[in-house]
Amino acid sequence: MSKILRIGTRDSQLAVWQATLVQQQLLQLGVQSELVYIKSEGDIDLVTPLYAIGVQGVFTRTLDAALLGNKIDIAVHSMKDVPTQLAQGIQQAAVLQRASYKDLLVFKGDTSFLNDAQSTAVIATSSIRRKAQWLSRYPNHTIENLRGNVNTRLQKVAQNPWNGAIFAAAGLERIAVRPAESIELDWMLPAPAQGAIMVVCRENDTAAAAACAPLHHPATAICTRIERDFLKTLMGGCSTPISALAQIQNDTLYFEGNIFSLDGKQKAETKKSVPYTPENPQLTTLGTDAAREVLAAGGKTIAEAIRNATV
User: Could you tell me which pathway this protein works in (predicted)?
Assistant: First the structure.
């Protein structure tokens, strides 16, 4: 395309890194672009827990408005922040190849508190998904709220008398700030689409869509779609501790998903595997089917209790 593509991004270091990655990949294709910095509501309010803000798309809707207002041509998002239903007039232009999907613990001092389920410790996170899974494993731990961009959260960890805090590995690794005092939480199931980046554009902007099409990674797109279908069917959002992971290994797609009660004491989960072939119709409905299994296995009761508790 001949015109300079305007890339909308939040102004945090991680968001800019992600937008710059898209800019660099577009440049390799001969597409010129510029970054347009837009502050989101999620960046302005650093006190209220994410689940209490009460809206989906808290990190994306300001960019959506700029996109629909023709102030930018594409927007770059952490895919896990994007609502499962895109705003009217906006379409997915590309899903980039996924980085690490894992959560990790940034700790202070020793990690002996991880070896005993009956230990006491203070762990910081604003994610109720992480909170519920952590309390399920360590019921005697205390969870503190932790908000802000990656750098702000790391600074708060250093300043407060906590034992540790939970971060997305991809976020720390992308901007090269992962501390040496950190360990991956292999037992913790991630948020749907964690570690993936989504690029969106206006539905009628065929030029922007065509420019971004070569950035699309089909395998990542399929896995994250299944995870987001699972989330959507369970009617989950920032206020619901829902986790999902789809992975392709040796021509098989493996899926895990769960929903926890807010205190981590109840859980409904599922594990599935299907052949990974383009023509397999099971891939189309896998996320939805898995969610229905979870609902039937106690997930409906958990979800209703969460909705009643947050009304």
Answer: Porphyrin-containing compound metabolism; protoporphyrin-IX biosynthesis; coproporphyrinogen-III from 5-aminolevulinate: step 2/4
